[in-house]
Amino acid sequence: MSAYAALTGAGFRAQVRDKATLFFTFAFPLIFLVVFGLIFSGQDVKASGRPYISYIAPGVMSWGVANAAVFSVAFTLMQWRRDDLLRLIRMTPTRLPAVLGSRYVLALGVGVVQAVLFVGIALLPPFGLELKSSWPLALPVLVFGITAFLTIGVVIGSLADTPEAVAAIANCLMVPMAFLSGSFMPMDMLPDWLQTGSRILPLRYLNDAVSAALSGRGDMGDIVLGCGGLVVFTVIFGAVSLKTFRWSNRA
Amino acid sequence: MTDATAVPAERHEATEQTTIVIEEIRKRYGDRDAVAGVSLQVRRGEFFGLLGPNGAGKTTLVEIMEGLREADSGKVTVLGQQPWPRNVALLPRMGVQTQSSAFFVRQTAREHLTTVAALFGAGHDAADSALADVGLTGQRDVMVENLSGGQRQRLAIASALVHGPELIFLDEPTAALDPQARRDLWEVLRGLKRQGRTIVYTTHHLDEAEALCDRVAILVDGRIAALDSPHNLVSSAGVPTRLMIPEGRLSPEDALAIEGVDSAELQGGSLVLETRVSGQVLTAVDKLAGLNDVQTRTATLEDVYLELTGSLAGTGQDGDNDTEQQA
Ligand SMILES: Nc1ncnc2c1ncn2[C@@H]1O[C@H](COP(=O)(O)OP(=O)(O)O)[C@@H](O)[C@H]1O
Ligand SMILES: [Mg+2]
């Protein structure tokens, strides 16, 4: 068995055996989707005349996927460093790309399962999401999004030395960002300056691109712009993560 | 006292029979020498102990040999190669014990070991035979989180041998174990030695070094204070033998009058005599008080160690005297 396959297998088992993480990855975002979806069932957003679900479904999906990517890699990295597992890996001939590759594939797998689950639920009659023909484009958008948020997770996992610190930093970042990027409520409801200001947030780009692909709120240009923005964030946080990465908590 | 620098006469034929050669290794942290010029050789198949109080520099020295740290100066050769920077050709030939928490989470013992084996590119049976080597076959399907302290320690050691390395580094593997688990682990370690592996072992348990190691280096303040077999260290140290005579059988004055008795003191219900000629003194005690219930305690590595660490701690450093004594 290759190092890559073994690491992916171990990561997969760790993921499916962790009930709390499974809940926060799959069930928690669904609660938002269901609650908001039922409250606003059949209603349209006044500013645009579009059904509310066409906002909330892509929004919750983007947030859920981004959140899972950030938390999973940040927790894993913090824990591997704290428990000296990074040191164990460093003492084997396994090259870093095999380690990174396995984590990347796991994160993409989780993101795809989340996307299918959330969209599947939103399509059910009480919610009534209508998919546009451009929906397959949501897949590459998700890949760009997961990549960007993984690099953010690596930075957090390098800075934080305890699970509490990971949760604190990641929540401080992800919760306000979800509201300001239009994940839980339509951007149209926010003041103009916030709509413009939120362009500094990576989740805004993911949200816009996923919305454009799934529910046609936006066009091809929005998808390309979203992916471009995510690539820029990937480069920035990738560079930062190279600076902050530590093999061990001991100097 | 054994002089470490005088030990290896065979320095120049340091090839076939020598697994590790380090020469004049130094490592400084801030204004403190963690390792202050250490030279030693570890022979093939040897069980080599590094002994010393906390902060003596054992871990730093071992990590330099493992290639986890770079020495400031000096030369390190492990299995004929340089361990620093990360030497991917050398890594499969070495096994390094990590903390007993370095496990892939939510895996069984066997799943964890299979993953580690794959990181080394080792075959599929590797995990099962490593589990057998450390006596964990019965726990193979137990989640790593549910193993006891001793079992975790053994799994950490199994992780260091799963790929069949020639050379194994163990840094205080028995530190957190209860006495029974410690003894059990000794058996595991003896088994590894019988398989012909070279083992570098740090500990501050002296009984352990005496029971397991072929040779021991005693490290104090980053320097080697002594390096020899436990037997030679004990016999060359000139530490007196103690005779314990039940109180009341012999007065301290009479005892001191015996030729060869260096001191006589009442301690905990016994009259304790110190002597370097125990045979002669025992004969005299026999005549004066009889040998019933008289106990003798000969020198152990612990005495050598206490003498060395007590007299040397702090001397090499400028006013730095915070070395903790552990025995
Ligand atoms: N990364 C580090 N930074 C600064 N000082 C260190 C570091 N690692 C070890 N030291 C210091 O070096 C000395 C030797 O430490 P160490 O090698 O861990 O000793 P031992 O393993 O014998 O207890 C100690 O004084 C310790 O505080
Ligand atoms: Mg140490």
UniProtKB/TrEMBL annotation, chain A:
<feature type="domain" description="ABC transmembrane type-2">
    <location>
        <begin position="20"/>
        <end position="248"/>
    </location>
</feature>
<dbReference type="InterPro" id="IPR051784">
    <property type="entry name" value="Nod_factor_ABC_transporter"/>
</dbReference>
<keyword id="KW-0472">Membrane</keyword>
<comment type="similarity">
    <text>Belongs to the ABC-2 integral membrane protein family.</text>
</comment>
<keyword id="KW-0046">Antibiotic resistance</keyword>
<dbReference type="InterPro" id="IPR047817">
    <property type="entry name" value="ABC2_TM_bact-type"/>
</dbReference>
<keyword id="KW-0813">Transport</keyword>
<dbReference type="InterPro" id="IPR013525">
    <property type="entry name" value="ABC2_TM"/>
</dbReference>
<keyword id="KW-0812">Transmembrane</keyword>
<feature type="transmembrane region" description="Helical">
    <location>
        <begin position="137"/>
        <end position="159"/>
    </location>
</feature>
<protein>
    <recommendedName>
        <fullName>Transport permease protein</fullName>
    </recommendedName>
</protein>
<keyword id="KW-1133">Transmembrane helix</keyword>
<dbReference type="InterPro" id="IPR000412">
    <property type="entry name" value="ABC_2_transport"/>
</dbReference>
<feature type="transmembrane region" description="Helical">
    <location>
        <begin position="60"/>
        <end position="80"/>
    </location>
</feature>
<feature type="transmembrane region" description="Helical">
    <location>
        <begin position="223"/>
        <end position="242"/>
    </location>
</feature>
<dbReference type="Pfam" id="PF01061">
    <property type="entry name" value="ABC2_membrane"/>
</dbReference>
<feature type="transmembrane region" description="Helical">
    <location>
        <begin position="20"/>
        <end position="40"/>
    </location>
</feature>
<feature type="transmembrane region" description="Helical">
    <location>
        <begin position="166"/>
        <end position="185"/>
    </location>
</feature>
<feature type="transmembrane region" description="Helical">
    <location>
        <begin position="101"/>
        <end position="125"/>
    </location>
</feature>
<keyword id="KW-1003">Cell membrane</keyword>
UniProtKB/TrEMBL annotation, chain B:
<dbReference type="Pfam" id="PF00005">
    <property type="entry name" value="ABC_tran"/>
</dbReference>
<dbReference type="GO" id="GO:0005524">
    <property type="term" value="F:ATP binding"/>
</dbReference>
<dbReference type="InterPro" id="IPR027417">
    <property type="entry name" value="P-loop_NTPase"/>
</dbReference>
<comment type="similarity">
    <text>Belongs to the ABC transporter superfamily.</text>
</comment>
<feature type="domain" description="ABC transporter">
    <location>
        <begin position="20"/>
        <end position="246"/>
    </location>
</feature>
<dbReference type="InterPro" id="IPR003439">
    <property type="entry name" value="ABC_transporter-like_ATP-bd"/>
</dbReference>
<keyword id="KW-0547">Nucleotide-binding</keyword>
<protein>
    <submittedName>
        <fullName>ABC transporter ATP-binding protein</fullName>
    </submittedName>
</protein>
<dbReference type="InterPro" id="IPR050763">
    <property type="entry name" value="ABC_transporter_ATP-binding"/>
</dbReference>
<keyword id="KW-0067">ATP-binding</keyword>
<keyword id="KW-0813">Transport</keyword>
<dbReference type="InterPro" id="IPR017871">
    <property type="entry name" value="ABC_transporter-like_CS"/>
</dbReference>
<keyword id="KW-0046">Antibiotic resistance</keyword>
<dbReference type="InterPro" id="IPR003593">
    <property type="entry name" value="AAA+_ATPase"/>
</dbReference>
